[in-house]
Amino acid sequence: MNKKVKKMYDYIIIGAGLAGCVMAERIANILDKKVLIIEKRNHIGGNCYDYFNKNNILVHKYGPHVFHTNLIEVWEYLSQFTQWNNYQLHVLGFIDNKKVPIPFNLNTLYELLPYDTAEKLEKKLIKKIGHKTKIPILELKEKSDDEDLKFLANFIYEKMFVNYTKKQWGITPEELDQSVTERVPIYISRDNKYFQDKYQGLPIDGYNKMFGKMVKNHNIKIMLDTDFNVVIKLLNNEIFFRGEKFDGKLVFTGQIDELFNYEFGELPYRSLQFEFETLDCEYFQEVGIVNYPNDQDFTRITEFKHFTNQENEKTCIVKEYPKTYNKDKNIPYYPIPQKEYHELYMKYFRKAAQINNLILVGRLAEYKYYNMDTVVDKALKKFNEILLNERN
Ligand code: FAD
Ligand code: UDP
Question: Which ligand ends up closest to the CA of 368?
Fold first, then answer.
């Protein structure tokens, strides 16, 4: 690449997922700088990508994505690029041959246990933990000193958590960082919604349209179907783009271990296999997602039409089969929140900190089990740091 081309870009962004697109949008619009996004897939949007399948049903290629947040600045930021349908996610769990509300709440309690037992446990839960409060399962197990509450904690653990977690992660809840099962705490309430966040929904015309609007800017160029390894190299803490030293900034949202050629060893991830089915009926299940903690090899079934209320005589579902991650075979969907892997991550992080024009952001680059709203929040904060630097 000759010098003229090299100067065309002030920023190179690896990955056109949420992190990459937020960064590109801010840099292009606010700083008015030239951005090149390099993405190995044939589309933008990363794991949030959605598309209309051959039956014209809007589906999520990489699993169900329902946006939810309490962060008004994140909500307002994304709302510049889309309107929302305000869909509220409801999840049922197939437990003891019944479909019951998940997260476990007071309604779940009454559906799974005899009325008198449930009534006694409800009173004890409210007294010990508090009405309308949430408590993670491992904390409930730990805090339950009374025999009845101990029974309940073990019941929930056995029926809802232990097998699902083993299926999803290949290990038990105790072997993972508590933050994983804390995502779905027991809710001492009658509220059946999966999330209680203030803002929730899906982009009214789909995620892909929203991403398209974000990156529609004359300052942004996107190279799809391109693995960054083909064009970017690191050498002596310097970045090279197509063989030339790159003096702009590199925003990296891919796997940090890959960036450093697995120098300290591979970071582990959990992968998934998605099995889509189109069915000749209007609806297949009662709600958007049904979890199968104890039965089946898959963890959950999503039926996309619940997300959108699309009218169609057919429906489309997807089953999620957790898989061991293999870098040559499948996609690294989940970083694994365990202490030893965080330590391995930190080795890469310290290495990255030596390169002064490298910025890490996103689920893979930060090796964190982030929801979409946190990714946007992190990206906006990284951008604000860039802004301060550019102005100094
Ligand atoms: P990604 O979306 O992974 O984007 C990274 C991009 O980098 C990808 O496009 C990838 O192809 C590209 N890339 C990687 N390596 C290279 C390379 N070598 N060269 C070039 N490009 C590369 N969050 C929610 O808030 N609500 C939900 O309901 C929800 N559901 C989820 C369901 C599933 C099954 C999963 C796995 C995640 C879910 N999430 C959900 C989390 C959400 O997907 C992430 O928070 C978000 O997509 C992360 O954005 P990102 O840009 O950091 O990463
Ligand atoms: N979980 C569980 N049973 C359930 C739902 C969740 O054991 O019915 C545990 C499991 O360990 C899972 C974690 O809680 O990985 C987080 O669940 P969440 O629904 O947030 O997972 P995600 O949507 O991110 O895959």
Answer: 1
